[in-house]
Write a structure and sequence with these properties.
By secondary structure, the chain is α+β, with helices and mostly antiparallel strands. The protein has 2 domains: 67 residues, no CATH class; 30 residues, no CATH class. Helix content is 31%, strand content 33%. It contains 3 helices and 4 strands, in the order ββββααα. It has a 4-stranded antiparallel beta sheet, with helices on one face.
Length: 110
């Protein structure tokens, strides 16, 4: 495989990831490192590989998972669903306190 120019951009399904090449000399020997950069849920993620083919595969997999919404489906359930899921009241005074707890939680978020 011919080595591309760097930074190399990998695009898949409208999502892109960048591969950068870093070189380091240690004891007179040159070592190359390929760093994959992508944005996941608003944060920059970086993964490094020593082989360009592996780095390209990591970039393609990240683009495919982001485009399919894989990481979005892994979020925990929302809190309102948790509050409405209680089968019985929390307290023994005969009243249902779920609405009061939910409104209190909702006011704390503002």
């Amino acid at each position: 495989m011919k080595m591309p120019t760097f930074p190399h951009v990998v695009k898949e399904d409208g999502v892109s990831a960048r591969i950068r090449k870093l070189s380091q000399a240690k004891n007179g020997k040159d070592y190359s490192l390929f760093v994959v950069d992508y944005i996941l849920l608003g944060k920059r993620k970086r993964e490094a590989r020593s082989d360009f083919a592996e780095a390209r595969q990591v970039a393609l997999n990240a683009c495919r998972k982001i485009a399919s919404g894989h990481w979005l489906r892994r979020r925990p359930p929302s809190r309102p669903a948790y509050f409405t899921g209680w089968p019985e009241p929390l307290f023994d005074d005969g009243q249902d306190h779920r609405a009061a707890l939910f409104s209190r939680w909702n006011s704390d978020r503002r």
